[in-house]
Write a structure and sequence with these properties.
This protein is an all-alpha fold. Helices cover about 60% and strands about 0% of the residues. The chain has helices at about 10-30, 45-60, 65-70, 100-130, 140-175, 180-200, 220-225, 230-255, 270-300, 315-330, 335-345, 355-365, 385-395, 395-410, 420-445, 445-450, 455-485, 490-515, 530-560, and strands at about 595, 610, 615-620.
Length: about 625
């Protein structure tokens, strides 16, 4: 993809999209009129063709395959003149772009859009569960709401928003001018809107949206209504995006580090994304395989999961969880890197046990593939595998514990600045420890058998993914907001956002542990009268959590439009991304830096991380940071 004015834009993309729709529509009419000569071409087959064909036409129309098509055809490729690189105006974010900074912002904004859509579904779920009996939606619609809610927040928010933050920051951190494969980077982003639109559009399918949960267990998913196709195919686009991004990160980190930046001079956020990318490349093909099997079962009758035809239902769960437990760490490890960056800067201390922190990230990558069957303790699998899975699940808490103690030691005797990024970081430490404790509890076979499929599980996963991942996402957005936009956010609104989120989050999910132990089942649209009071409290608190995210959205939009101008380094950080202007130059650095020291040598006299044109960046800059969003740095 060489993005130049000669390349197809939105107009031609719309034309290609219309071609795809017209083709699917014509095929559908022919089929309904009995003009098809192929008995396999029925309404569901037409939908599959449309779900695969229309997005492809859309991506071709955007010009995302032009370079590769010309190369494959043996035609002269269009030289890259960088006319499609960098943001000329806000309109640049609406087109394919090869600048990693533009792509990073595209990722973040798009992911937050899907977060708000998924959050709205969560509000509808809690409105329905505010009292026993039916309130607003029927049981099938409720199943669709919680299925699409979970799928959007996992596949279209948490995983890609971390990729967006890393896309913006990582090349700057390692002193690179861009990502290794800019065209592939652009393609990987534009696969996301396709996947998200597909999942939301499932509500318009005959019979309703997919309602088998984000796990899409067979045989339910192989016999579900046609809306299931939207999830089965949408996940493939989201997975392809993740794999392409991960490969790009790996090659960029390995081959494009600035002179002098050895692996043990890299910031921990780079280490975290290196480890995450290894997980993505190894694990994501398994979830793609599981959905291909479902698609083949549904479309061609392969019967992989039909026990009556010799299939094995449990095999789906083994394949799916072999990806989906490492996926938990795909959604956590980038947050660990964000926390490490913020704690060092806001404590003005070096990270305690830097090398052990890096090794513990790699340990999680290895151990993450040894625990998948703890999700299947009550599935009916062989009982002998329970004990080794229980042991490995307990062991994987060790490298995570190393990180917790390292973060605490980093803060010990530090000069803490409790601004919004630091508050969300401290909130993460509290919430993630609580989620980790319940996770160790769930490693124990007797307790898991007792609370399986109850609200105890719902509480655990939300303490890990909301209290863990989302708190680090908020921390990272606030921390790098000045660098990405050149503006400072409103500190008072940021702190209000934190305290509302912290209080209402705990009021929402802490009671779920209690009613879960008492037997409140998850994934149900109705429940016994004995749980009515707690569910009303949970629903009211959930609405408070929703309001807090609106404060965040207002703060970001208003500050981006008219917040005080940010200096290049308002936090007095040492890492390379803060040693350039805010926002950075189009190709990041006027001259490639030379790295001569570690990234966290705060308080070490004379310590230097990078050298630009012979002058080092000092460990303790004399410039004071802005004390509030209303007072820009001087």
């Amino acid at each position: 993809m060489s993005i130049t004015p000669r390349q197809p834009g939105w107009t031609r993309a719309g034309i290609y999209c219309l071609y795809g729709v017209a083709f699917a529509f014509a095929l559908s009419i022919a089929t309904r009129a009995g003009l098809s000569y192929d008995p396999l071409v029925d309404g569901e087959s037409v939908l599959r063709i449309a779900l695969l064909g229309v997005p492809f036409f859309f991506l071709v129309g955007l010009g995302l395959f032009t370079y590769w098509f010309r190369w494959a055809a043996g035609a002269p490729t269009i030289p890259e003149d960088h006319s499609g690189h960098g943001a000329k105006s806000w309109k640049s974010y609406l087109y394919p772009n090869t600048d990693h900074k533009v792509i990073g912002i595209q990722y973040v904004v798009t992911s937050f859009f899907f977060m708000f859509v998924g959050g709205l579904m969560a509000m509808l779920i809690r409105a329905e569960l505010a009292a026993p009996g039916r309130q607003f939606v029927d049981a099938n619609t409720y199943n669709g709401l919680f299925s699409v809610h979970a799928s959007l927040l996992i596949f279209l928010f948490i995983i890609p928003v971390f990729a967006g933050l890393a896309n913006y920051v990582l090349p700057l951190m390692i002193g690179a001018p861009d990502m290794a494969f800019p065209r592939l980077n652009a393609l990987s982003f534009w696969l996301l809107p396709v996947a998200g639109t597909m999942m939301i559009a499932s509500f318009f399918a005959p019979g309703g949206s997919f309602a088998s949960g984000w796990t899409a267990y067979a045989p339910l998913s192989t016999s579900a209504p046609i809306g299931q196709e939207f999830f089965t195919i949408g996940v493939q686009f989201a997975g392809a995006s993740s794999i392409a991004t991960a490969l790009n990160f790996l090659v960029t980190i390995i081959t494009m580090r600035a002179p002098g930046m050895s692996f043990f001079r890299m910031p921990l956020l780079v280490w975290a994304n290196f480890s995450t990318s290894l997980l993505v490349v190894i694990a994501t093909p398994f979830v793609a395989a599981s959905q291909f099997f479902v698609l083949l079962d549904r479309s061609l009758g392969f019967n992989f999961f039909d026990a009556g035809q010799g299939g094995d239902v449990l095999m789906y769960q083994h394949v799916f969880w072999f990806y989906s437990h490492p996926a938990v760490y795909i959604m956590m490890l980038p947050g660990f890197g964000i926390v490490s960056e913020i704690l060092a800067v806001k404590s003005r201390k070096p990270v305690f046990g830097y090398r052990m922190m890096a090794f513990s990230l790699l340990a999680i990558v290895v151990l993450g593939f040894t625990v998948w069957a703890h999700h299947m303790f009550v599935s009916g699998m062989q009982s002998w595998i329970r004990v080794p899975m229980m042991v490995t699940t307990a062991i994987i808490a060790v490298p995570t514990g190393i990180k917790i103690f390292s973060w605490l030691a980093t803060m010990w005797h530090g000069v803490l600045k409790l601004d919004t990024p630091m508050l969300f970081t401290l909130g993460f430490l509290t919430m993630f420890v609580l989620g980790g404790i319940s996770g160790v509890m769930l490693a124990m076979i007797p307790l898991t058998i007792h609370v399986s499929d109850t609200y105890f599980i719902v509480a655990h996963i939300h303490y890990v993914l909301f209290g863990g991942s989302l708190f680090t996402i908020f921390a990272g957005v606030y921390f790098w907001f000045p660098k990405m936009t050149g503006r400072m956010y409103d500190e008072r609104l940021g702190k209000l956002h934190f305290w509302m989120t912290f209080i209402f989050f705990n009021a929402t999910f802490a009671p779920m542990h209690l009613i879960g132990v008492q037997g409140m089942p998850r994934r149900v649209a109705d429940y016994a009268e004995q749980f009515a009071t707690w569910n009303l409290v949970i629903s009211l608190a959930a609405f408070g959590t929703g309001i807090s995210t609106l404060i965040f959205a207002y703060n970001m939009i208003a500050s981006w439009r008219g917040g005080p101008r940010a200096t290049g380094n308002p936090w007095r950080s040492l890492t390379l991304e803060w040693q350039v202007t805010s926002p950075p130059p189009v190709f990041n650095f006027d001259e490639i830096p030379t790295v001569v020291g570690g990234p966290y040598e705060y308080g070490v006299p004379g310590a230097v991380h990078g050298v630009f044109g012979g002058s080092g960046t000092t460990a303790e800059p004399t410039q004071e940071p802005a004390e509030s969003a209303g007072t820009p740095s001087t």
